[in-house]
């Protein structure tokens, strides 16, 4: 992709950061393409589709594919709101600094606390699921012991890559992007064109998954096909201080992540459905892991092995991107003195210009959770079920904060702006987000209290611990970093741009 030059009236990256109260501490070596690759590999349609394909079909049948379109459209609205926010606030950490500058310290504390735990759990889950692909690739039986060892290995490999600096992160993310595109679009197109065994009308056939009940209930239950897929685009903003001209590039990267991720997921999900030789057994739940069989039947043994290589690359890149995003959030949180051990966490390596201590935490805590899961597999459900709901709640805290500021008169002053349409998009994004949270938080009906309320259990633990620390330690009182200043910052940025333009005319 071509590098777009800054306009004469744009502020330099360092000047923009200075207006926000910070100084440049990182190497701005991440391009638009690399920033997009980071978000895309975090979103990872290959991981999402593979994980949810059988579950979605068994709940809602082939029409569950339309949730990819519905959720993709909703998250696109959210990404547009985020684009305006990050364009004004291109600061490391994404959700935390955005919530802080849009609302306040305590509000930002809770948004970041929920979000960081959701990210850490997501790192754990992705590394754990990737261990199965690695085991299949190297030809070993997947056991609790091998899963533990491979999961820890994936976490350490990602940490080593992240330690070497932003350029390595960008390269590996781009390799992961290529692997994702081959694994989802390439394979999906091949299945659609050469291995189709079902008619396209199947996407409107419920295949009687509703039984004697209403299909509407079954369709709503299959929303996980999209809800568990479309997040990760916000990671583009987590590394804002390592991107040149972030006010323009990051909004573009987030939008690209949603659009390309959505198309990729549709090709992949649709391809598997149309190429399934026995779709009925998948919909009935008899075949709980159908994708290996579909690939073996359509690609052959060698082709399936090549796909495993591509999938492993995608998983490594996804863990790498997740660690990078989580470490920048921790760094941003610590830089403002808002978290225990903030002086240690806020240190940046003088050589590689990455927050190494924060990276260590982003690897170590998922490793500890992995060991707990190995000792007690029963905690897997409540731990992982919380992750997606936590991320959606944190997202909507930013969307709500942006709407609050708009109603108070805020006009986003970044180089990416929706203009008069901004408030309409903001309202629609909030409405969609509340709907998504309702879908995710609705208890199950299996009769198993722990399983049915797993999401609430995980969220409750995180909220109670976060509120307890907030009101006992009062980190908000120890931090003097700016907060709730969206309108004032917009005015300062506008004034600084006018001053820069005036000086340019004189020269």
From TrEMBL:
Domain of life: Bacteria
Membrane topology field: Multi-pass membrane protein
Keywords recorded for this protein, A-Z: Membrane, Transmembrane, Transmembrane helix, Transport
Statement: the UniProt record of this protein carries the keyword Transcription: no
Subcellular location per the Swiss-Prot or TrEMBL entry: Membrane
Transmembrane segments: 32-59, 65-86, 107-140, 146-163, 175-193, 213-233, 253-275, 306-333, 354-375, 381-403, 415-441, 453-472
Listed PANTHER family: AMINO-ACID PERMEASE BAT1, OS04G0435100 PROTEIN
UniProt name for this protein: Amino acid permease
Organism (species): Agromyces allii
């Amino acid at each position: 992709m071509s590098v777009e030059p800054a306009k004469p009236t744009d502020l330099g990256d360092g000047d923009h950061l200075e207006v926000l109260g910070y100084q440049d501490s990182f190497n701005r070596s991440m391009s638009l393409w690399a920033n997009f690759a980071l978000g895309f590999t975090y979103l990872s349609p290959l991981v999402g589709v593979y994980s949810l394909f059988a579950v979605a079909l068994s709940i809602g049948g082939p029409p569950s594919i339309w949730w990819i379109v519905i959720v993709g459209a909703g998250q696109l609205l959210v990404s547009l709101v985020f684009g305006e926010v990050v364009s004004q606030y291109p600061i490391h950490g994404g959700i935390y600094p955005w919530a802080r500058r849009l609302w306040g310290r305590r509000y930002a504390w809770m948004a970041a606390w929920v979000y960081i735990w959701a990210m850490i759990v997501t790192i754990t889950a992705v590394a754990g699921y990737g261990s199965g692909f690695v085991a299949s690739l190297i030809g070993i039986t997947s056991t609790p012991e091998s899963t533990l060892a491979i999961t820890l290995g994936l976490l350490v490999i990602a940490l080593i890559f992240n330690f070497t600096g932003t350029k390595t992160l960008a390269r590996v993310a781009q390799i992961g992007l290529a692997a994702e595109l081959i694994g989802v679009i390439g394979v999906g197109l091949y299945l659609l064109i050469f291995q189709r065994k079902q008619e396209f009308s199947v996407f409107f056939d419920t295949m009687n998954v509703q039984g004697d009940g209403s299909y509407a209930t079954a369709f709503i239950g299959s929303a996980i096909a999209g809800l568990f897929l479309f997040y990760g685009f916000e990671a583009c903003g987590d590394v804002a201080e390592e991107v040149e001209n972030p006010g323009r590039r990051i909004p573009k990267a987030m939008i690209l992540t949603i659009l390309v991720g959505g198309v990729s997921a549709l090709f992949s999900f649709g391809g598997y459905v149309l190429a399934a030789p026995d779709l009925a057994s998948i919909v009935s739940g008899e075949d709980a892991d159908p994708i290996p069989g579909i690939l073996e039947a359509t690609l052959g043994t060698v082709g399936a092995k090549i796909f495993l290589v591509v999938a492993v690359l995608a998983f490594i890149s996804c863990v790498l991107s997740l660690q990078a995003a989580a470490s920048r959030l921790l760094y941003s949180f610590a830089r403002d003195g808002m978290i225990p051990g903030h002086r240690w966490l806020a240190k940046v390596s003088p050589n590689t210009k990455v927050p190494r201590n924060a990276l260590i935490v982003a690897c170590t805590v998922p490793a500890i959770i992995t060991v707990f899961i190995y000792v007690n597999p029963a905690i897997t459900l409540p731990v992982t079920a919380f992750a997606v709901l936590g991320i959606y709640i944190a997202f909507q805290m930013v969307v709500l904060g942006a709407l609050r500021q708009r109603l108070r008169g805020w006009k986003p002053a970044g180089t990416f702006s929706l203009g008069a349409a901004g408030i309409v998009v903001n309202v629609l994004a909030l409405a969609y987000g509340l709907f998504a949270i309702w879908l995710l938080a609705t208890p199950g009906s299996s009769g198993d209290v722990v399983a049915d309320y797993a999401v609430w259990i995980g969220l409750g633990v995180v909220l109670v611990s976060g509120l307890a620390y907030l009101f006992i330690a009062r980190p908000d009182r120890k931090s003097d970093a700016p907060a709730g200043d969206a309108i004032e910052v917009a005015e300062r940025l506008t004034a600084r741009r006018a001053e820069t333009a005036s000086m340019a005319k004189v020269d």
